[in-house]
Design a protein that fits this description.
Strand content: under 5%
Largest sheet: 4 strands, mixed
Oligomer: single chain
Radius of gyration: 18 Å
Length: 253
């Protein structure tokens, strides 16, 4: 299925369909969108960004964001899932997009394990913090739906909140208490801090694709407006804060 914006772009354009960029150029409100955008910036790839209010989810091959349309590189079909997108880009042009070729098989295994922990476990802690705590109504809804009348924000928030809480329970995190989720997330953040240590990037002195994930998720926790105990604890790890600021300066500012 072709992108709804394909008529406005040429064959060399990569169009990224995300959720919402903030007021400052620091990424998408969904960390998976920030992950993909950071990866494209790492590879010096020009792209066009289309937010939810423009695409309304129409054209998403996986029913989620982000997805891309890159006819000159990947054909006319839309490609969804940030990891699948990156994999497709690496296959299409490894010289430009393969940031991991210098890694040993063991290092790739470690990087994949770290990435999987962040995306499949820490992520659900983030969802809980944003959608299942008191900051849901005071921070999340106004940030995700700026410009809407408060009554519309309340209605949209109620509807989405029910859906997301059902996802949390189905995944398992929503069955835990806030204290249990906090303990679990803090242990994962500590593991990331310990593994990063004094290295410039996650896997050493040279950037890899795994840094796109680490930056995207840490950015939301450290630089976001949420003040859940996990956010406060994470901001206490100097090496993680320095890492986010270093990546932000290098690729976003």
């Amino acid at each position: 299925m072709a992108s709804p914006a394909s008529d406005e772009t040429n064959d060399t354009t990569i169009t990224v369909y995300g959720f919402l960029l903030g007021d400052t150029p620091n990424g998408d409100l969904t960390p998976f969108g920030t992950k993909l955008l950071t990866f494209l910036k790492m590879s010096k790839t020009d792209y066009k960004y289309v937010g939810f209010l423009e695409h309304n989810g129409s054209g998403s091959p996986k029913g989620k964001m982000p997805w891309i349309h890159a006819p000159g590189l990947l054909g006319d079909d839309n490609i969804g899932d940030s990891s699948m997108i990156i994999k497709a880009l690496v296959k299409a042009d490894p010289t430009k997009y393969d940031f991991d070729s210098h890694l040993s098989a063991q290092d790739k295994a470690i990087g994949l394990a770290m990435k999987t922990m962040i995306e499949e476990s820490t992520y659900w802690g983030i969802v809980h913090m944003r959608w299942n705590t008191e900051e849901f109504s005071t921070v999340t809804v106004p940030m995700y739906f700026p410009g809407y009348h408060w009554s519309a924000q309340k209605l949209i928030g109620w509807y989405l909140g029910r859906s997301i809480n059902a996802q949390l329970k189905g995944q398992g995190t929503g069955l835990l208490t806030d204290e249990e989720i906090t303990t679990k997330a803090n242990a994962e953040i500590l593991a990331l801090s310990e593994f990063l240590g004094t290295k410039k990037y996650l896997m050493g002195s040279q950037i890899t694709s795994y840094d796109a994930t680490l930056y995207a998720f840490l950015f939301g926790i450290i630089k976001g407006e949420w003040n859940h105990p996990v956010c406060k604890k994470t901001r206490g790890y100097k090496n993680l804060v320095d890492y986010v600021e270093r990546m932000q300066k290098e690729y976003w500012l």
